Amino acid sequence: MTDSIKFGLPDAARSFGVPVRVLRRAIRAGKIPAPANLTATVSLSPEWLSSAQAAVKASPNALSRTPRQKVPAYARYEGTSAWHKYPVRVRAYARFRAEAAQAS
User: Read out DSSP for 50-91?
Assistant: First the structure.
């Protein structure tokens, strides 16, 4: 019998220094390549680990713990009731966009 070491998501997350949920979020977002068949008890290959390490090295924010949205949620609903419900936030966001455009 051969001894095969089963390398799963908890081990991969531990090697990257992040919780499993952060690793799963990065895989779902496409920041890290997904393994062949991603299940709860997936057995990861060394090739996948090396490709994931290359992806993390190429993009240091791939395993960022904070989810970042480019546009706040209320700014995506222009013309809807949510847009009218939060006029102060909408004006603050418009000021922020104007200042950002002016700075660049």
Answer: HHHHHHHHH-GGGG-SS---SS-GGGG-TTSHHHHH-HHHHH
Q: Note whether 30 and 54 are same-domain residues.
A: yes
One domain for residues 54 and 81 = no
pLDDT, tens digit (0-9, with 9 covering 90-100), for 87-98? 888 788 888 888
In a domain, 49, yes or no: yes
Q: Return d(Cα 44, Cα 94) in angstroms, integer.
A: 46
Q: What is the pLDDT of residues 24-78, one digit of tens each?
A: 888 888 888 888 877 877 888 888 889 999 998 998 788 876 666 566 666 667 7
* Diameter of the chain measured on Cα atoms: 68
For the entire predicted model, the pTM comes to 0.57
Q: Which two tokens stand for residue 66?
A: 């904070």
